Automatic annotation (TrEMBL):
The chain crosses the membrane at residues 34-56, 68-89, 124-146, 153-175, 195-214, 226-245, 257-277, 289-306, 312-331, 343-366, 386-409. One of its GO terms (cellular component) is plasma membrane. Residues 35-436 form the Ammonium transporter AmtB-like domain. One of its GO terms (molecular function) is ammonium channel activity. Keywords: Ammonia transport, Membrane, Signal, Transmembrane, Transmembrane helix, Transport. Residues 1-24 form the signal peptide. This is Ammonium transporter.
């Protein structure tokens, strides 16, 4: 009898000091989704050095380091800014009439320590994933005014642009109370950044390029790429990273993730193939630059559509991306403005095309859900109106604010390099370095 009493006492002691042994608390995170989102976050960050290589190979030798620095410094500046206040401004609750988000608890990510999202991942992971989008978007703009801007002016510009353009757009499109998120029964479709990332950066790039003017000597002086090997390598890294960019935007590890990953692959391949076929038919040869440009065009056009189209739609969109981007670049060459690395011609044009044309390839199940929410019917043309409104708002807002910021930066710290520094090259005049151990820096 005493033996039984001792066993009962021992059992009660175990319950006191090791409650988890018998009553383990149910996990609040989905380990599979969390693992995929961690991977996606790393993949999107990989796109930034990929972009640096892509842009760096396209400029002249004397500007290769300075151009690559534009991508890498965004990792530093926006990486800090996002933690301090960017996440709060983007994903906080509506403030100032819905123009921006705001949540004091999100400042310095201070309230996220024990937070789990509805997708059952730590909110830290979601914040870091979104932060990578915030980093690469202003870095994209740099390609339009490559080889002719000051480093400090660029740093100030991307800081202000991120706060006043990127964060509001991010809130409008992706925050649950954003007005574009709630436009129509299922909102304006932007699965992974057609409006927030590519249209905003493309339009802003065009505005900045027009205000700052052409590179000295353009277009009369030949300005050949210094290293297309870097550009191809960068394009490859962008293609790989884009799987995290698009498939990660499902914030899940399920059928939606698989769909997004599949159409991303199809559109990129279609864009690349279409571009080099066009070159072969027109010029009798396919180029590495054309292949890299086609990859990028296909990836951009599918970005807003990755959650709603099927593989056939992705195939068509990828081909259309090459067609519209080649046309846009041809028009640029005729007009003579200097969008150095065709940021508007690829990101802006393909982003707008994807946001609009996706409407004609939406899977039927999505449209049925929209009709149910609308309490009746919801047609392709009604969704087209929503998409057009989102594109127009993004274009107008990005253009207006960017123009003001470029003027402000140029009038204060200076944005455009002086003639002497530009002729010497950014690497030497700004950074006191050179990209290659060669005597010829042109």
């Amino acid at each position: 009898m005493k033996t039984h009493r001792y066993k009962i006492l021992l059992f009660l002691l175990l319950l006191q000091f090791v409650p988890g042994i018998l009553f383990a608390e149910e996990a609040v995170t989905d380990s599979g989704t969390t693992a995929w989102m961690l991977t996606s976050t790393a993949l999107v960050l990989l796109m930034v050095p990929g972009l640096a290589l892509f842009y760096g190979g396209l400029v002249r030798t004397k500007n290769v380091l300075g151009t690559m620095m534009h991508s890498f410094v965004a990792m530093a500046i926006i990486g800090v800014l996002w933690m301090v206040c960017g996440y709060a401004l983007s994903f906080g609750k509506n403030a100032l009439g819905g123009w921006i988000g705001w949540d004091p608890g999100f400042l310095f990510l201070s309230s996220l320590d024990n937070s789990i999202t509805s997708a059952k991942i730590p909110e830290y992971v979601f914040a870091m994933f979104q932060g990578k989008f915030a980093i690469i978007t202003p870095a994209l703009i740099a390609g339009a005014f490559a080889e002719r801007v000051s480093f400090r002016g660029y740093c100030l510009f991307i800081t202000l642009w991120s706060l006043l353009v990127y964060c509001p757009l991010c809130h409008w499109v992706w925050a649950s109370d954003g007005f574009l998120f709630n436009l129509g029964p299922k909102g304006a479709i932007d699965f992974a950044g057609g409006t927030v990332v590519h249209i905003s950066s493309g339009v802003s790039a065009l505005v900045a390029a027009l205000y700052l003017g052409s590179r000295r000597g353009y277009p009369k002086t030949a300005m050949q790429p210094n290293n297309l090997v870097l550009t191809l390598f960068g394009a490859g890294l962008l293609w790989v990273g884009w799987f995290g960019f698009n498939a990660g935007s499902a914030v899940a590890s399920n059928l939606d993730t698989a769909r997004a990953l599949t159409v991303t692959q199809v559109a990129a391949a279609s864009g690349a193939l279409s571009w080099i076929l066009f070159e072969a038919m027109k010029h009798g040869k396919a180029t590495s630059l054309g292949l890299a440009s086609g990859i990028l065009a296909g990836l951009v056009i599918i970005t807003p559509a990755a959650g709603v189209v099927q593989p056939l739609g992705a195939l068509i969109l990828g081909a259309l991306a090459s067609l519209v981007c080649i046309t846009a670049i041809s028009i640029k060459n005729k007009l003579g403005y200097d969008d150095s690395l065709d940021v508007f011609g690829i990101h802006g044009i393909a982003g707008m095309s994807g946001a609009i044309l996706l409407t004609f390839f939406i899977r039927q199940s999505w449209m049925k859900d929209a009709a149910t929410i609308a309490g009746g019917s919801w047609t392709t043309f009604q969704q087209l109106g929503v998409q057009a409104a989102a594109v127009l708002i993004t274009v107008m807002y990005s253009a207006l604010i960017t123009w003001g910021l470029v003027v402000l930066v140029n009038k204060t710290v200076g944005f455009r390099l002086n003639e002497k520094s530009e002729k010497a090259g950014i690497d030497q005049s700004t950074h006191g370095e050179q990209g290659y151990g060669l005597l010829n820096l042109n």
